[in-house]
Amino acid sequence: MNGRDAGSHSGEAHVGGTGARLNWLRAGVLGANDGIVSTSSLVIGVAASGVGNDALLTAGLAGLTAGALSMGVGEYVSVSTQRDTERALVQKEKYELEHFPNEELDELTSLYEARGLSPDLARQVAVQLTERDAFAAHAEVELGFGEEDFTNPWHAAWASIASFVLGAFLPLITVLFLPADTRIIVTVVAAATALAITGTVSARLGGARVRPALVRNVLGGLTAMAITYGIGTLVGTRIG
User: Fold this and answer.
1) Is the whole-model pTM more than 0.85?
2) Overall domain count for the chain
3) Phi and psi of 222, rounded to 5°?
4) Has residue 4 been placed in a domain?
5) In this structure, is residue 135 part of a structural domain?
6) 185 occurs within a structural domain
7) pLDDT tens string 30-68
8) To 5 degrees, how large is the angle CA 186–CA 159–CA 89?
9) pLDDT by residue (tens digit) across 85-136?
10) Which tens digit of pLDDT belongs to each residue from 150-189?
11) Which residue in 210, 219, 231, 156 sits closest to 188, CA to CA?
């Protein structure tokens, strides 16, 4: 049991503030990753059907625009929901502090005991912090965030849109400006390299092991590209 769990009200969620501060960066990495995978898969599938550059450009730009807007809207909705939850937790905590001050003081004491303080010292710390700023004391130990740490849905949305566009430009430019006999394989290599980079960055942001995340990211992207290439080849053969 950790300090956030001990002494908390039944069913009360606790959210860390570190993830909120890194939210826009997470959205950026995920947006770039999706831009690489979806656009690479799209243009490789279309190129495999044997169409010309005009059709490739049209399909690529359409996919880039739709994907970027979809990512932006999705991030905005998701982060807005998270922010609403954070606000609800803050309001709930303020209500409890106003109407149940003694119970909240006992709760804060138990949280500090769970962190290793003796009962007497935990009580002294809880009392002093409560007298200074009761909400700030509970926000730090119990919730893990304060009102200044609320996530910003616009930051996440714009970071996601911009990074998706940047990620999508790589395969789109590669497939358009290379000879027909090499553009697919070079696009695959470029996309796999970019996916290795985004996989590494996302793993480091989350404190996870780099190698599994990198392999998972690259293999997932290669699988998507292989499937769309097969579909494009089949469609091109049937149409031809």
Assistant:
1) no
2) 1
3) -65, -35
4) no
5) yes
6) yes
7) 889 999 999 999 999 888 888 888 888 999 999 999 999
8) 135
9) 888 888 888 888 888 888 888 888 888 888 888 888 888 888 888 888 888 8
10) 778 888 888 889 999 999 998 889 888 888 888 889 999 9
11) 219
CA 29 – CA 214 distance, rounded (Å): 13
Torsion on CA atoms 159, 161, 167, 170, rounded to nearest 10: -130
Range of the domain at 49: 17-239
Residue 12 lies in a domain: no
Longest dimension (CA), the chain: 83
Alpha helix ranges (H) inside the chain: 17-21, 23-48, 53-99, 101-114, 119-138, 153-176, 183-206, 210-239
* Spatial separation of the C-alpha atoms in residues 52 and 59, rounded to whole Å: 11
Looking at residue 1, its pLDDT comes to 37
Q: What is the rounded end-to-end Cα distance, in angstroms, of the chain?
A: 65
d(CA 226, CA 240): 21
Q: Closest Cα to residue 217, out of 231, 205, 232? A: 205
**Residue partners of 63: CB distance under 8 A and separation at least 6:** 38, 39, 42, 43, 168
SS3 152: coil
Q: Per the structure block, which two tokens stand in for 188? A: 């695959």
CA 85: distance to chain centroid? 17
DSSP SS3 for 100: coil
